[in-house]
Design goal:
By secondary structure, the chain is an all-beta fold. It is built from no helices and 11 strands.
């Protein structure tokens, strides 16, 4: 299974960050798999943003929930992240990942997103 993030590398403050993860070699509807967005700000650790389950249910980090939306396109085997009202503190490398149970088995290579005017 391979994951590939795509989207703009530069977003202006107050705008919405939009990223898409394309999954190949496996289906995002496979039972018991969860498809996550995770980010790493410069000099900091990994931060889980949220995920969408094989069933289509979504789960978000409480600290980001008010600004986050994760959706999926099963026909194209993709899932997407929208993060609204971004600030420079949202600058990070954004990863998509696939997990089941407590294990993240699949990761994208990551994409740098910078929030700046």
């Amino acid at each position: 299974v391979q994951l590939q993030e795509s989207g703009p590398g530069l977003v202006k403050p107050s705008q919405t960050l939009s990223l898409t993860c394309t999954v190949s070699g496996g289906s995002i509807t496979t039972n018991y798999y969860y498809w996550s967005w995770i980010r790493q700000p410069p000099g900091k650790g990994l931060e889980w943003i949220g995920n969408i389950a094989y069933s289509g249910s979504t789960y978000y980090s409480p600290s980001l929930k008010s600004r986050t939306s994760i959706s999926r396109d099963t026909s194209n085997n993709q899932f997407s992240l929208q993060l609204s009202s971004v600030t420079p503190e949202d600058t990070a490398v954004y990863y998509c990942a696939g997990s089941t149970g407590a294990h993240y088995y699949y990761w994208g290579q990551g994409t740098q997103v910078t929030v700046s005017s």
